[in-house]
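Below is how a single chain appears once it has passed through the pipeline. First comes the sequence as given, then the structure the pipeline wrote out for it. We keep one example in the README because the format questions we get most often are answered faster by looking than by reading.
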Amino acid sequence: MKSGEPGALVTTLEKALTWGRSNSIWPLTMGLACCAIEMMGTQASQLDISRFGSEIFRNSPRQSDLMIVAGTVTKKMAPRLKRLYDEMPFPKYVIAMGVCVIQGGPYVHGYSVVLGVDRVVPVDVYVPGCPPTPEALTYGIMTLQKKIRGETDR
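Resulting structure:
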């Protein structure tokens, strides 16, 4: 077939739905500390995560399917975070952004800090750093898209 000629694309409904799901991720605004500034930077014109299907950060858990937890999770905040996660529609995903979210960071010896958000909600992708750069979060979103599509890194 020559370039420019009409053709047919054949796929399964499952693959088409998975492709659509991976390219239309709507994040929930869940900025808890300094990592939230870096999360906001991903929507700036230089990085623009809109090209990955993450158009607008939603303020309602019922309108989003990705929770980006950015910042220190305290024991007082953990039940509220779990409630927001439970209110999200299925399928739902979680990105843990920053060392404070992943394992407590510099507050690891504090009595009020949860030592990993994975003790509260299941985490799909970890983005390490203190704070992680907006480019790292963009890479984390791309990794989540690959995970949704069922691709593996070689």
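The chain has a mean pLDDT of 83.

See the next section for the split statistics.
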